[in-house]
């Protein structure tokens, strides 16, 4: 033992004198030569522990570096984990979904905290001399041991992270899934729904979603039991019954399905109070619940299916939820998680993003592909991407087979061969992201795809019907933003093309690359060939395809002429549909006339030369030239006597349609010339161009327009917007200077018109009876503008109106009708305007009201109303003489959106005829109205009690002079109010702008009733009191409010009166230009009748006496607020009270403060810990601001260091700011997450960072300091410092005339990733030096040389 002691003593002494390498060598020599002879016992008991001790010492550096690398990995993973508070408060059930996740987060944070301590200690050690380091071997051993243990802990935590439950949590936390889960849970809690459906395309994630719902209902105890069973396309009743019994812990001892069903039903109904949820997954056809044994009453059933029709029609679900594919960002997040650590390589990651995109949001594809490619090489990823983009009929990989079989199963289950064939045809015609209905119709009709159908209208109906069936089956999807198209999911399309290739000999070549035509034998079998977006500039000399019915070539460009030989079409005798798109065709090949079976010819988006040959194709039924460039429609087109559709839409260069061409197309059903030919002739003037009068010959022998022509779009004049699409089949838009032009045949167009727009039309005094005697019975959309002569839309001429007028009208708009006095000058039948949905009126100078109350009561379908710039309008609806008082008049029960703008004379929404006739001018001038006298003045609010909008969602009022907008009743001083007000229960968006006389916005009773309000905007309003009347508001206000804007309210003093008020859902708040807003909530001391007196006393105080009040105090809470903007609040001195509501501002992510001239600071340290989500802070144009973070009052004895999550800090034009932090936050706060810092025009600023902040800016990427008074970037401490900025790529220092040092004290700085360095106007500092300094020498000289100018950068390496 003595020998061992001597050995250890010698090692310790030597270790204090020599370097680590020598220690290692001597230690090994001593162990080898002195310890071994002692024997094996000593080796086991003493040497190995000593070796282990020395191992920690020898591997100190590698252990520390390894720990840093692992901490970086853990931090990257930790940042991707969704924080519990980031989930919407309404779905707390999903927040609590994974207690394991919270434990994982706690473990990760604990480990990173330990690692941080080790790293900080290691940084301090580097500042000491080498001699001091050698003396502290014991400390180095301890730190090395800690680092190794931390690495082991991190590996374990990362291993746990990759478990499936985390992937599941991420999947269910996606917005698209959370919303569906939330709605489904709400439906399960609704007593009105017992049968609920979830449907969607194969592989979209229906099973995953309903199983999550099952877990949640168990956790929240909504049901006592939950049973899940899988049905499949071949239901096995015994298996289904067994799954249900197993989940409910029941035993079925019967053998037959019927016996088991009866027994199960008895067992399930024994306890009448027991609530059971049944989930039947993957239903394909009607399933009788009695056959399973599920009771009809006392339980709820959730069904999933690929087919919506199975759920709603066959199973009788009361509520259905469609599940869409994942959004692009969600899809990548899921794909990345499933791929694990295999995407570290940047090249592989880029390819993985492309693969994820190719999966197009389909959960099944994402999971299958990610698992199949996990840990694979780059070439395997590239191969998989190729196969996903261009699936081959043969040699499919396993991942493709899974996707293929799921989709083909849905295809096989389609109910008819016609539907299957139509589905495959839809997939063939999706060139880009969607399929236009019109394009599909043209080809379907030409191919005679629908048996027994001979008209375009019937073919169109069949097309829409089949598309709807396929949507219900999940095989087709809605196109975004348009109802004129639909789409096929990319993977569904690929599977359909494979099926079409195998079963119908359909060949499709798409996307990149040259065209490779199949061999001769395969070509002879082809029935359809489609070439999309390939590099093709010519067709073969001849194509021998005797069975070919369809040829579709969509070229990639049309720069040069596309070459088609004169012999090409000789071998295509059965061709019925020819589509040549996006080509330059100087002429058509002569062999085209050999196509005697051709029914549809599409030459769309082409630059066309001579196309007269089309006239020789006598059997042609559809000719489409949309978006093509040509000037002259050949006269030979008139020879196409079998033509049913002529589509010349968007042929903007078309100048001539010869006279008498259209009149010869006697079978024409549909004519489209939208955004195209406008040079129509007046009948009888000359015979050079077509006239509208020709169209009456299309329906001979009857001289009525369009008996055969079912669809048309004709625009005359240059004022119409062709992108304005309404679902109408007969559209006429006319700009005519005089009514004389109506005599040239145009008047016949009004019969049966569905969409009519008129501009000018001078000489016309009314619309109904002057243009159409029958009252436009089929008109759906009427727009009239720029007419100075029409006084009434409906002019009775003194006669009784018996006919119902505009019975089908849905959209009614009037604009610039400066002499319009009314809609009608007589009593209308009550069902007139009965179907109107949208009403818009703008700039009707003489219009005093819109509707009489008798007509208004019949507008049960009205959903949107917009009235603008009608200068003498007194009311929207006027009560007719003799009408009885109705205290609960429900006007417009379906009204969703109401906008009233620039109506200076508007008295009330609903008024009497007498008050409308009398021109009273201003009702009450500002300043003459006393609050308590309101009941006696006769003044009425804009919306009184008789106006009820039970479904109103959006209300926008702009430049309305009413002094009151929404009051519950005339007894406003009463302290009591109703809990609900039926008039505005569903209001979601309230905007009030430019209403100069407004005294109050809401009564407290109405504010309380607005439980659905999400957006409240107030701008340019002269409020003389609060937003609410003088009643104390209840504790929770506007529970759904997400956006609040208070802007340009010059006399607003407070939002409302009350205490402990919470805005539970508010996410975004903007407060600007409210100079008298002292405190957001005023808490009264008194109550009852003395409250008004107290308010008046407060209102009379000068702003200077109350200016120190904080904007936000403990009386108001914003638990969900994410973005706060405060602008142009010149009198604001304090934003936050030192005591705030317990849960307020915890989720605030972005704070913008601008033009607050008297503000002194932004944050005081005693509240900074509250802002644990703050990521961005912008402070601009605050002339008195002295510091951003005021830390003087903080208790420095607090041991815990709070990490502030701030990432972006922008400071601009703060002339009095001397420092950002008024003291070094070391030991109190950490700002280690900062990524971008920009400071501009802060002339009093002396330094930017305290040392402790600068030393830990490991995430900083962008640093800009411009036009400031800084002398140093980092304030000096009397200790040598080392600054490392590992991620900074941009450093901008400009116009800093006082800058002398980066840091006045001795220091080193490292910028390993710096790419962009811009320094200018910094004349007192040297940018670079090449002098090599010994670090120890630098320390020794530091006491003498701290005032010597130091360079910004040392370009050569510092010697250790």
From TrEMBL:
<feature type="domain" description="AAA+ ATPase">
    <location>
        <begin position="192"/>
        <end position="330"/>
    </location>
</feature>
<dbReference type="InterPro" id="IPR003593">
    <property type="entry name" value="AAA+_ATPase"/>
</dbReference>
<dbReference type="GO" id="GO:0005524">
    <property type="term" value="F:ATP binding"/>
</dbReference>
<dbReference type="GO" id="GO:0006952">
    <property type="term" value="P:defense response"/>
</dbReference>
<dbReference type="InterPro" id="IPR042197">
    <property type="entry name" value="Apaf_helical"/>
</dbReference>
<dbReference type="InterPro" id="IPR002182">
    <property type="entry name" value="NB-ARC"/>
</dbReference>
<protein>
    <recommendedName>
        <fullName>AAA+ ATPase domain-containing protein</fullName>
    </recommendedName>
</protein>
<comment type="similarity">
    <text>Belongs to the disease resistance NB-LRR family.</text>
</comment>
<keyword id="KW-0611">Plant defense</keyword>
<dbReference type="GO" id="GO:0043531">
    <property type="term" value="F:ADP binding"/>
</dbReference>
<dbReference type="InterPro" id="IPR057135">
    <property type="entry name" value="At4g27190-like_LRR"/>
</dbReference>
<dbReference type="Pfam" id="PF23247">
    <property type="entry name" value="LRR_RPS2"/>
</dbReference>
<dbReference type="Pfam" id="PF00931">
    <property type="entry name" value="NB-ARC"/>
</dbReference>
<keyword id="KW-0067">ATP-binding</keyword>
<dbReference type="InterPro" id="IPR027417">
    <property type="entry name" value="P-loop_NTPase"/>
</dbReference>
<dbReference type="InterPro" id="IPR032675">
    <property type="entry name" value="LRR_dom_sf"/>
</dbReference>
<keyword id="KW-0547">Nucleotide-binding</keyword>
<dbReference type="InterPro" id="IPR050905">
    <property type="entry name" value="Plant_NBS-LRR"/>
</dbReference>
